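I am writing to request your help with a piece of structural work I have in hand. Here, with my thanks, is the record as I have it:
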Amino acid sequence: MMAFASAIEPLRLANQATGQKLYDWQLVGEAHRDVTCSNGAVFRTDMGLEELPRDSTVLVCGGIDVAETITKPILNWLRREARRGAAMGGLCTGTWALAEAGLLDGRRATIHWENTDAFCEDFPDVELTRSVFVIDGNRLSTAGGTASIDLMLRLIAADHGDELANTVADQMIHSSIRTDRDTQRLSIPTRIGVRHPKLAQVIGRMENNIEDPISPALLATEVGMSARQLERLFRRYLNRSPKRYYMELRLQKARNLLMQTEMSVINVAMACGFASPSHFSKCYRAHYQTTPYRERGTSGGTPEADRALE
């Protein structure tokens, strides 16, 4: 709901500030049905999957389990409106729907950071970034949450000037307007609560090398430390070894892939740097107290292959 409201309110405030109807909008839903947010709020749609004016901008707003809510009629409607010249945008996980429709192939885009691992696996032809929002021609995307505000302020500024965009930002108490060069996640030092440059550098290398893990000894060498010094650094600030921390990062990505994609458990293991599926299952069970197969509930591979991992 935050991504949704953050997209509409700047437009309303632009109209209010100028006393003109600069923007109008309609809520579109499949079969003209009411739609329910994840927080339980219900919205009445204005229309179904009908033709739009040719100068329209379509913004698809998505929430949790977005892949399960994308239907064939929605995909066909998105493709048709794109062919008719509408600008197409995705708010939060709405980017997934555009990618599923093939509307982001060869384009730059962004999506909420929780969905990046699964998105990269399912849509390799999309150049996914970590930006707050992305504008690539007539394709728009945001990372979700308040990032919609920043995108809409950029569009308002392009249409009617920076002064109006700043006025709208002030009305929203949005004191720092982000650009498409700003990243969506907090910095590593802020996330871990530790401002140690070498520790942040090592964690950054770990996060960027999940499929092909780097040995702690090599990571230590890269930042000019001995393996023992790196071990002490992790113990002091994070209360775990570098090896343990790296394993937790890999298992976290594995869980995201299991929950968000149809990849087989074996392929998830490979994507997270586990050469042995049985080792992956053992580590996963130790960390999450369940097996990858039971976590999935349903298997992207064959039941026989995945049960073998238990």
User: Anything to note?
Assistant: The first strand starts at residue 35 and ends at 36. The longest helix spans residues 242-260. The chain has a mean pLDDT of 90.
